[in-house]
Amino acid sequence: MKNYDVSIIVPVYNTGKYIEKCAITLFEQDFDNIEYIFINDCSTDNSMEILKTVIERYPNIRNDIKIDNNNKNIGPSFTRKRGLNISSGKYILFVDSDDWIDTDAISSLINEVKKSDADIVCYDYAKEFKNKSIIKSFFYTKDHPKSNLEFLKAILSHEISVSMCDKLINKELYKDVKFPHFSHCEDSFINLQIFYKVKKITYIARPFYHYRTNHDSLSNNFSNNQKVLDDFASFSKAVRNFLIQKDLFKDYFHNFLPNILKFTLDYANGDFKKHINNICPEANSIRYVFKINRNFIYKILYSTVFLGCPSVFIFFKKIFVNFRKFLG
Q1: CB–CB of 146/138 below 8 Å?
Q2: CB contact set of 197 (below 8 Å; sequence gap of 6+)
Q3: Domain locations along the chain
Q4: Reported pTM
């Protein structure tokens, strides 16, 4: 079996419009020792046919490509876990099949690994809208090294990116990591476990990853979706149990409350306090509104829910969503 430096794992589900660009940027990396793993999560469109057509253009790396198929649709979290289980690379990179990466991403990340002997290399990403790109840069190790517990606090409060796609991670760190059944905030929960035990983290201030923003997605509609709200409740419970198991609940759970409050207010369109109590009752307080990692205007709008004016928040939320769609 070949010893790969990196395994790139790509869950595939109904991304026929975008998977060609994703695959091309992976196959044209200026680094050779890569294993490519595509897991078909029971796509119902032509995603896999397009992928196989692209693969035919790259015969030199055909032996480095694995394609596997789920027997049923299991969602991105367990699909990534399946890819992880069949991977053989020392480092793991997750890429979503509607996104893409720069062609020098892997070489740059591996060079950083060799230079710093880090277990995780973090980097920036670009949110790609129809007519513009916005680079998202996060504080990792720019001014001073952070301890594991400082990173945990930053993950709980979303002060750093919790995406699985903007980090190259040593596969050993995934040992004993629990992949959750919920499909929203699964990245946050996995990162919480990984950063708890990592020894060394480094950072490159470049947006290697390009995240395609789809305005039709739930994250942009902020619709009252019970599945999403149920996922937030499962996420809150999983975080609570993890912190209790690690004897960190008393000192760190409060850092999580503004984040879960934000999620709930963003996705519920009524009965806000009821939803908050169902998901995480400790977050049901106006004091956590002003600790949410957003600008002051957002905080004022969030506070109207606690000041007896939830209709004001709903009204401006609709305006915001429509305005963002207009900007493209």
Answers
A1: no
A2: 148, 173
A3: 6-212, 221-327
A4: 0.92
- As a residue count, the chain comes to 328
The CA distance from 59 to 125, in Å, is 30
Please check whether the domain covering 6-212 is classified as CATH 3.40.50.720: no
pLDDT in tens, 108-158: 999 999 999 999 999 999 999 888 899 998 766 555 557 888 889 989 988
Straight-line distance from the first to the last Cα atom of the chain, in angstroms, rounded to the nearest whole number: 46
Q: How many CB atoms lie within 10 A of CB 75?
A: 17
How distant, in Å, are the alpha carbons of 5, 64, 114, 121, 208 from that of 107?
10, 17, 11, 12, 11
Burial class, 297, CB count within 10 angstroms (exposed 0-12 / middle 13-18 / buried 19+): exposed
Q: Could you tell me whether strands 120-128 and 6-12 are parallel, antiparallel, or unpaired per DSSP bridges? A: unpaired
Single out the residue of 280, 266, 275 nearest to residue 235, CA to CA: 280
Residue 263 in 3-state DSSP? helix
CA distance 95 to 92: 10
For residue 94, give the nearest of 182, 150, 23, 167 by alpha carbon: 167
Q: Can you tell me the distance from the alpha carbon of 139 to that of 65, in angstroms, rounded to the nearest whole number? A: 34
| Token output for 154 | 């930053």
